[in-house]
Design a protein that fits this description.
One of its GO terms (molecular function) is enoyl-CoA hydratase activity. Helix content is 42%, strand content 14%. With 270 residues, the chain is α/β, with parallel strands linked by helices.
Length: 270
């Protein structure tokens, strides 16, 4: 499949989706929106892919929406574009919307934030499961300084990650946040020198791809994204149900055997 505004490649059981408008700091476009969603679905359906990395080409991750697009945007587009077919009718509707579909992808998504991450670029970074950033990266919600509001579910997701007070600070002020502060507040998981970011991110991704059971990652990811909608009792009951399934699985036997035999595991691909 060919793409216009992104690059897509698979190697070593890792799918890499690269926002590819480096001359515009990977500013977000409707084409990019469609292509990222399609690429995520492609990676989700590929049995050879166990981990997904989302990053940007050049100096930035995504500098936000393309200003030329914003100048001509139709206000009715926001409502119309959210009416999209869901990935899975059996999954929560919360994860079936225009941008909040990342949790419905049954594979871990790593945001490799190589530079400026702003506005809708920050929205997409937040929907990744973990975020590794260059120590030179800068972050901003941007919306309030453009006369906009907290868009595309960021008002729900951002407090989940950095807490209520930090989320209000970042959304109300739309100030620029340096990488070290982003790490302190939990906005990103890890920081690396820019020239080490790719190496370290892919080392982590390869470890997941080679040494962790895909079925375990799929269930754990679903558990964590379901928890905000559950009581402790509900989460425990669900965990007990999944535990019984995992104990009867070939992957559990393989996980124990590989540990005892001191060899790499050979987990199933589903």
């Amino acid at each position: 499949m060919s793409y216009q505004d992104i690059l897509y490649e698979v190697a070593d059981k890792i799918a890499t989706i690269t926002l590819n408008r480096p001359d515009r700091m990977n500013a977000w476009t409707p084409v990019m929106e469609r292509e990222v969603r399609t690429a995520m679905q492609q990676a989700a359906a590929d049995s050879e892919v166990r981990v997904i990395v989302l990053t940007g080409a050049g100096r930035g991750f995504c500098a936000g929406a393309d200003m030329q697009v914003l100048q001509t945007i139709d206000p009715s587009d926001v409502r119309r574009a959210t009416d999209l077919p869901p990935f899975d009718m059996n999954r929560r509707p919360d994860w079936q919307t225009r941008y909040a579909f990342y949790p419905s992808i049954p594979k871990p998504i790593i945001g490799m934030l190589n530079g400026a991450t702003a506005g809708i670029g920050l929205v997409h970074a937040l929907y990744c499961d973990v975020r590794f950033a260059a120590d030179s990266a800068v972050f901003t919600t941007a919306f309030a300084r453009r006369g906009l509001i907290a868009e595309h579910g960021i008002s729900w997701m951002l407090p989940q990650i950095v807490g209520h007070a930090n989320a209000l600070d970042l959304l109300l002020s739309a100030r620029r946040v340096a990488a070290d502060e982003a790490l302190r507040m939990g906005l990103v998981n890890r920081l690396y020198p820019a020239d080490q970011l790719r190496e370290q991110t892919y080392a982590y991704a390869r470890d997941l791809a080679d040494n962790v059971a895909p079925a375990s990652m799929r269930v754990i990811k679903r558990q964590l994204y379901d928890v905000p909608f559950q009581t402790l009792a509900e989460a425990t009951i669900e965990a007990n149900r999944e535990m019984a399934i995992s104990l009867a699985s070939a992957d559990f036997k393989e996980g124990v055997a590989s540990f005892v035999e001191k060899r790499p595991p050979r987990f199933s691909s589903v």
